[in-house]
Structures are given as C-alpha cells and as structure tokens.
Design brief:
Elements: E1 3-4, H1 5-12, E2 15-17, E3 23-24, E4 26-27, E5 37-40, E6 57-61, E7 73-77, H2 80-95, E8 100-101, E9 106-107, E10 112-113, E11 118-119, E12 124-125, E13 130-131, E14 136-137, E15 142-143, E16 148-149, E17 154-155, E18 160-161, E19 166-167, E20 172-173, E21 178-181, E22 186-188, E23 194-196, E24 202-205, E25 210-211, E26 216-218, E27 224-227, E28 232-233, E29 238-239, E30 244-245, E31 250-251, E32 256-257, E33 262-263, E34 268-269, E35 274-275, E36 280-281, E37 286-287, E38 292-293, E39 302-304, E40 309-310, H3 311-322, H4 324-343
Parallel strand pairs: 4-5, 5-6, 6-7, 8-11, 9-12, 10-13, 11-14, 12-15, 13-16, 14-17, 15-18, 16-19, 17-20, 18-21, 19-24, 20-25, 21-26, 24-27, 25-28, 26-29, 27-30, 28-31, 29-32, 30-33, 31-34, 32-35, 33-36, 34-37, 35-38, 37-39
Antiparallel strand pairs: 1-3, 2-7, 22-23, 39-40
Length: 344
C-alpha cells in the first residue's frame, strides 16, 4: 500500500511542507529512515536525525522550524506522537480489513454473523454463536457453542474462546489466548486424591478490552469471571475463576490473579505480580513488578515487594537491607569490644 503526503495529511489534519505527491509504503525510525518510508519526530533528543534521515516523509509538531536544509517532506501536526499513533491505527485497520470465509473451516448451521465478517482457514464456529459486524477471526481460531461477540472485534490466529463466553465490542484477542477454560477447582478425598469441581459459569469481557497473546482467563465456578470496559491485559497472564477486574485497569505480563479476587478501576499492575485469591484491591492502585499481594488493598495505595509493602516503606527498608553486611560487622565489633572489656 502506498500513501502520498497529501493523503496522510488529510488523515491527520496536518499541513504539508515539501512535495505533496511524494509517496511512502513503509514505516521507519527517524535514524534508520529510507527512501519510501514514513517516520516522525516527537522527542527533541532525536532532532539531529531529521537533517540526515532519508525518510521520504516525517511527521513533526507545528512549532518545528528547521535550522538547516532538510530533504524529507514534513507533515506538521499539533502532536506528532499522537498523530503517528493514529496513523498506525489506521494502517492496522487497512491491513486487517479482510472480508469473507476461507476454506476449509467449520461454521455451525445455527451460528450467525454480521456484515464485514472474516473467518480464516481452519477456524471453528460452534452452535448458536452470535457475532456482530466487522468481526475478524483469523485461521485456527476456535469459538465454542453459545459464544456472543460484539462489533469490531479481532480474534487472532490460534485463540480459543470456550462456550458461553460473552465478548463486547471493539475488543482484541491475541493469538494463543484461551478464554473460558475451566477454573482450577478440585477437592481432596480421604484417600489423598482429588475430585474435580464442575466449572459451570462463564467469562464476560466488556467493550474495548485487549487480551494479550498466551493469556488465559478461566470461566467461573458459578456466575462469571468479568473484565470490565477498557481493561488491558499483556501477554501470558493468568486470570483465575470468578475474578473481576475493574474498568481501565492495565496488567503487565506474567502476572497471576487467583480465584475470586476483585480488582478496582484504573489500577496499574506490573509484570510477574502474584495476587492471592478472595481479596479486594481498590481503585487507582499501583503495584510494582514482582510484588506479592496477600491482603486487601485500599484505594490509591502504591505497593512493592513480596509480601508487598507501601512503596515508600519498601524503599526505606531496602536501604537497611543493602546495609545488613555492614551492620552485622558493626555489631560483631561491638560484641568483641564488650567481651574484651569484660575479661579485663
């Protein structure tokens, strides 16, 4: 796909300085720009590269004024970074705008889907599946019985959506994600073996949710595991049965949330965080990477460590921890002086 400077400026509501008909067909970093590529300048640290870049078009802020000759065509916008992000989103929409049903694949006679639908080869749609408009389901994806999917959803290759799952509109499910697998429910018998507790609930994902590659979201034992509007999950996250995650909470990779825990709105949770089950985490909570959360957390707390402490307390404690060898030597020297004085 090729786009001219005029076309790009139209999308971004920007102004062209240079050749309005110059065309680009790929993206690049400003320092690695090549002929036919589009780049952007937002960080002042990279300003020097705009005078040497070979990129055909560069998106810049409106207040940028070159101090020497440049060869790249400029598109001036209010915010170069936001405009470049908008352009990436537009590019993805164009790139992913596939329509139609590829073969071989399986679609149950009772399944139905809306306009602008795409189903990749070797995908599966089960009984009574209901799918909205402009949904793209890529090859080798599985959609089980009675699943409901809203409008403008993308399900990438190899994702598995188990029966009874409900997914809202404008969601993205990345490859290898598994939504609606059984929760980890077992009871020990008198002979030391385990009996499985049936997991009869489902998963509900509201609008504008992103689920990363390889992430698993377990169905509820009873009721629903729920991801509220705007939740963003990174890759390789485990969300256990009956967990509820509040609106606009973002969780980084390799975090695990145990069963029946409730997480509030607008929280930021770092990578490799472990959260025990049956606790409540408030709104706007910040949890640093590799922390272990074993208690209820109030609104606006910032935590770090395992077990997690208040962020400020953790940093103060860590200073002492780093000095433990020095403190141990000081105590040892004091003990030796005291013993020496006692023997006199």
């Amino acid at each position: 796909m090729k786009f001219t400077a005029t076309q790009i400026a139209g999308i971004l509501e920007g102004e062209v300085e240079g050749n309005p008909q110059i065309a680009v067909h790929k993206l690049s970093k400003i320092e690695d720009g090549e002929k036919g590529s589009l780049t952007f300048l937002a960080n002042p640290k990279y300003t020097s590269y705009i005078y040497s870049t070979k990129a055909s078009i560069t998106i810049v802020n409106k207040d940028f004024i070159p101090e020497q000759e440049i060869s790249t065509t400029l598109i001036k916008v209010d915010d170069a970074y936001k405009s470049f992000s908008k352009l990436l989103e537009y590019y993805n929409q164009v790139k992913n705008n596939k329509i139609g049903v590829e073969n071989p694949c399986y679609i149950s006679e009772s399944a139905n889907y809306g306009e602008g639908f795409y189903l990749g080869a070797f995908a599966y749609l089960g009984d009574n599946v209901k799918i909205g408009d402009n949904v793209k389901i890529y090859p080798n994806a599985y959609v089980g019985d009675n699943v409901v999917i809203g409008d403008n959803v993308i399900v990438f290759a190899g994702a598995k959506i188990y029966s009874e799952t409900i997914i809202g509109s404008n969601c993205v499910i990345h490859g290898g994600a598994i939504i609606g697998a059984d929760g980890f429910g077992f009871t020990p018998n008198s002979n030391g073996e385990y009996s499985k507790v049936p997991q009869t609930g489902n998963v509900i994902i509201e609008d504008n949710v992103d689920v990363g590659a390889g992430t698993t979201i377990d169905r509820a034992t009873l009721g629903s595991t729920i991801l509220r509007k705007g939740v963003k999950l990174d890759n390789q996250i485990q969300i256990a049965h009956n967990v509820e995650i509040g609106e606009n909470t973002a969780i980084a990779a390799q975090t695990g949330v145990a069963g029946s825990t409730k997480i509030g709105k607008n929280c930021l949770i770092g990578g490799q965080v472990g959260i025990v089950g049956h606790i409540i985490i408030g709104d706007r909570v910040r949890i640093q990477a590799q922390s272990g959360i074993g208690r209820n957390v109030k609104d606006d707390e910032v935590l770090q460590g395992s077990p997690a402490l208040n962020y400020g307390d953790f940093n103060k404690s860590y200073v002492h921890f780093k000095n433990l060898p020095k403190l141990a030597n000081q105590i040892s020297n004091i003990e030796k002086r005291v013993e020496g004085e006692q023997t006199k």
